[in-house]
Design goal:
Blueprint (H helix, E strand, L loop, with lengths): L1 E5 L7 H14 L3 E4 L4 H4 L9 H11 L4 E5 L7 H6 L26 H18 L5 E5 L12 H15 L2 H8 L27 H29 L5 E2 L1 E2 L8 H4 L7 E4 L14 H11 L3 E6 L18 H11 L2 E6 L25 H13 L9 E2 L3 E4 L2 H9 L8 H14 L4 E4 L10 E4 L7 H12 L3 E5 L21 H4 L1 E18 L4 E13 L3 E6 L8 E8 L2 E6 L1 E3 L1 H15 L11 E7 L4 E7 L5 E11 L4 E8 L4 E5 L1
Parallel strand pairs: 1-2, 1-9, 2-3, 3-4, 4-5, 6-7, 7-8, 8-9, 11-12, 11-13, 13-14, 14-19
Antiparallel strand pairs: 10-21, 15-16, 15-17, 16-20, 17-18, 18-19, 21-22, 22-25, 23-24, 23-25
Bound molecules: alpha-D-galactopyranose and zinc ion.
The site of zinc ion has 8 residues, from helix 6.
Amino acid sequence: MRIGVDYYPEQWDRSIWQADSDLMAKTGVKLIRFGEFSWSRLEPSDGQFEFQWLDDAISTFSRHAIGIVLCTPTNCPPLWMYETYPDITQIGPDGRRIQTGIRAHRCINAPMFLYYAKRITEALAKRYANNPAIAAWQIDNEIEAYPCTCEVCCNQFRDWLIDKHDTLENINAAFGNSVWSGEYSDISQIKPPTAYSKAWQNPSLCLEYSRFTSDCAAKFINDMSLIIKRENPKAKVTTNICFTENQPDLYKLYEGLDFASYDNYPQITISGDKAVSHSFELDMIRGVKQKNFWIMEQLSGPTGSWEPMSPTPRPGQIKGYAMQAMAHGADTVMFFRWRTAITGAEMFWHGLIDHSNVPSRRFKEFTELCKEAQKLSVIETTELVSDVAIMYSPDAHWAFSIQPQTEGFDYLEQLRSFHSAFARYGANIDIIAPTADLTKYKAVIAPAMYVYDKNAAENIYRYVIKGGTLVMTARSGVKDQFNNCIMEPLPTVFREVIGAEVKEYDSIGRHEQNIKDFAGNVFKCRQWCDILELTTARAYAEYNDSFYSGSPAVSMNRYCSGVAYYIGTVCNADFYESFSGNIMKQTGIPRLRDLPTGVEVTTRTNGLDDYIFFFNNSDKEAEIVLPKAMFSIIDGSDREKLSLKPYGMEIVRK
Ligand code: GLA
Ligand code: ZN
């Protein structure tokens, strides 16, 4: 397992590079990332390239066998470019040009920006793509599906729509533009959504625009990657993301890239009892390419700068959260950042070395991590194999953000509830695209499949027909592919597989009611109640209140060789735990019972050996008694009992 750091040579004196490279080598740092914001140093004026400093930086660090992750600097065009070509700056949904002065303001469709972006990327690729010191490339930084409304973007959006729908009539029909006299009589009338609340705007337009901006981000990243691959087809190329409001479709974004990478900043809580787990995000990023990934930026200290500072990472968290990422499929973890900035807007987003320049408690812990990581080489050839998959649909995510369904309803919460329930029993969980291959899973959870996608629907049917166990939930089958409602009983296309239909629904928001399952257990429900009428299904749980008391709330249907469950409401964690436990029992997925609160278990395998990761995501020590003695690869001995320190990790060979 490789540990690396993010570094900004342009922010430090060369004497510091020297000292830093020595200390990194001594500490066991294997990789260093630089360049993503350094365009003004690489091209101080139009066409005047200066690579000497970068050559020097590369050789300073690679001399110690530290591999370089080289970034393309396109996130931050230099000011001369903004000055010469003001229209490379994005225009926001309010029609105003965004003010420069921070970063990431370039419009990724603007021709002059693209001209320069390609030129600098090509120049870097020509100079470094075959340099053995370069371990990988990062394109840009945390790309988003920017809602830019500049003229270029407007025109491209129109072309994108015409390309997809052929004619203006078709667009009018797909958007249902007879509502509120929204019909286009000329293509120039098509405009991106405005700054008004999305809920007031045409939902079809809004969804198509999300798809368009997402395609733009994916195209930009993939085009830049091709420039590098042209110089060296074997170059390893990625881009780093975090989860944002303007999130592109990650499945498309990473299509042409070699691996996914994620910027991992687990939230720091003072009382471990309330510790939030970042395991969902980690599984989500692994699911993007369904293979191991990198952490490109990892929590190193208190966060802050544009927000008040967070608490400092508690003892164990620097090391523990990096190991947690490995437990979920990260092979490389790069820390953001080696040094805390002393200048610029980000000086309070702490790195490993504080302003004081005196190695701190956190740095000591990082040193321990580097040492420990070297013992984990057997893990490098392993990956997670999961029995359970949860579907994530970018379409549903966008569409729910356009039209919130009920107070408190959150699409990702639907996924998270199942994720934490299965995780409580130590299951590996994949989070996958709705069109991913499902044949290897014993159970597939498809929460809120809101927007119709023919391939996804067929995928789901095929899975159940062949014997799979499927779980669907409320707000499935609601919309057609253009975000319009469908004139059929819900859940429309999924009625047959679930063997039930929705007679009526009740959006109860934050109000709480009860459901009772077949065994008599009562659980709270909230937000949404689908009142079901069963055709071939049987009731798993019924409502216990309101005028629909006694009507089915959760159903179970045998369909061909498989089984399909439908949960018509939203419950609290206890329901999902009980339900997932039953699903695991039915499908023969092994369950670990009585794991102490906060202890997370995942397994990585190379086909011959399984390695079980026990991570204690709490501030209390935890004890685990193993069913038999197992070999700990961290301390190299057989163990029957594990004592996990707060945020501690143990890895045993099964
Ligand atoms: C993001 C960015 C970094 C930095 C960090 C911390 O993840 O990619 O450049 O800004 O946040 O603030
Ligand atoms: Zn634009």
